[in-house]
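QA checklist item 7 of 12: single-chain prediction sanity check.
[x] sequence parsed
[x] length recorded as 356
[x] structure emitted
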Amino acid sequence: MRSGRQRDSGKGRGRRRFLKRKISIIGAGGFGWAWALILAWAGYDVTLWSRRPAPAGYPYQWLLQYSTPSNLTVRQVIISPEIARGELVIIATPALDLLGVAERLDRCRCQEVITLQKGSYGGTTPHDLLSIRLPQARLAHITGAAFSEQLVAAINRGVRMDVVVASESMEFLLEIREILRPTSVHPVISSDPRSVQLAFALRPVVSFMQGLASGYVGGHPQYQPLLPLIMSKMMSEGRRIALAMGADEKVSDGVDEILTADYLLCMGEGSRNFATGYECGSSGQIPTGESPRGVVEALNTIRQIYGFLVNCELGSTEERAEAAVFNKYPYLATAHSYLYRGKPLVECAEAILARR
């Protein structure tokens, strides 16, 4: 089995100080494991906190090609992770688990926290939630345009991978950049984590809707020529929804390119949200309760965002507010009607296609 390479990126007292740091990663899903390997390969002492009993083993087939570095420890979270003062904490759980994790970290008085979620919590962003729950901590967010398996494979081979690193603290941004220096992860810096999170939170939603459209068009080939335009309009709608929710139009140079790449990455069955949407579009059946947690999170986000957009139409009756949302954001409104209003897929799809 292959092990990751650690590259020598320079010497100095500052660099050695960072390499002595301990890092705790909470959540042993795909991205939890990905970042645990990447940072352990870079020489850091990493603890990966898992719900599974330790040793957790490798929960994903793609992990079997890598050996576990000696400086990576997997421990089980029963009540609360044992975080020492001064440790850097990375939260790699689904957004739905953020509140519980934040409450546990508050008891540890954690000072530096990075989130990896692509989702929202109850209609708010991870940054907003943690700003309230962890007022003493410096916060940052990391996101990008690669599945966990792809990210690990690229870093293992020394391929440069661009990610967005967002924080309101410039000092923390510079510190994270130094931490990432011995890896081939290249940080694109933003000082607006809330806008970054809003923009990227829409990607799983759009991915599901793209799958829904693709599955439906697959059974109605007369609409096949429209599919590329539908996909493009869904991406545009996702960006407009993020702006409506308060994201700034221009976050920083380089972020928009990564967001576009992330949208394009998830227009295929490698994305669970796209694959679930495609199955729904093909069968006309809504997802079951057995859907992966990431998919359930995307579907919950559709409901939360739709409710937020309807509430934004102040001064209107509910019927007029919903009509206004359909006119402004037809793809999201259509997905909401299909998932939560019980409208048949064919009725929803034809309503969209009739607008063209």
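[x] summary fact logged: Residues 1-14 have pLDDT under 50 and may be disordered.
[ ] second reviewer sign-off
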